[in-house]
Design a protein that fits this description.
Order of helices and strands: EHEEHEHEHEH
Strand content: 15-25%
Number of strands: 6
Shape: globular
Strand order of the largest sheet: 3-2-1-4-5-6
Number of helices: 5
Distance between the termini: 54 Å
Oligomer: single chain
Bound molecules: adenosine monophosphate
Largest sheet: 6 strands, parallel
Helix content: 25-40%
Length: 142
């Protein structure tokens, strides 16, 4: 794949839970091209009728399916299923097999955070972010 084929504003989001749906709506409203994937099609109900992107039902651990979704052209891949192992596995597939450069994975287990940063995968941990934000709010009040 020629690097010119990669579309910076093409976002693939894996997992249409509350976070995934929120991200999909936000990026779509910002004018990005969004594809959101979930293995359960009911999950797409969270998007509402104004969602301007594409929904794809399927298992993101299936490499052929990710290929069909056009992952090799994605400028950004975000993995936010409810399973750390799946998020990391799909992030690694995106990096190693499809050569995606901008990858963000949600991890509930903050202990694994630093390991994946070394692989070039950015991770976010909701508990760490929440603790930081609560701390900030409380400090602000003083
Ligand atoms: P939440 O529990 O709100 O974080 O939502 C996580 C979403 O990830 C759910 O809608 C799941 O159906 C979805 N999900 C979990 N595993 C996979 C998978 N292997 N492929 C695609 N979607 C998945």
């Amino acid at each position: 794949m020629n690097k010119n084929d990669i579309k910076k504003n093409f976002y693939i989001i894996i997992g249409c839970g509350n976070l995934g749906a929120n991200l999909a709506l936000t990026f779509s409203e910002q004018g990005e091209d969004v594809v959101i994937i979930d293995k359960n099609k009911e999950a797409f109900n969270k998007l509402g009728s104004n969602f301007g992107g594409l929904t794809l039902e399927g298992d993101a651990t299936n490499i052929a399916f990710l290929g069909t979704a056009g992952i090799e052209k994605a400028g950004v891949v975000i993995t936010v299923t409810n399973n750390d192992n799946i998020n990391i596995m799909v992030a690694q597939i995106a990096k190693e097999m499809f050569n995606n450069k901008r990858i963000v994975a949600r991890l509930y287990d903050s202990d694994r955070d630093s390991v994946y940063k070394e692989f070039g995968i950015d991770t976010i941990c909701p508990e760490v972010l929440s603790a930081r934000e609560i701390n900030r709010l409380l400090k602000q009040e003083k």
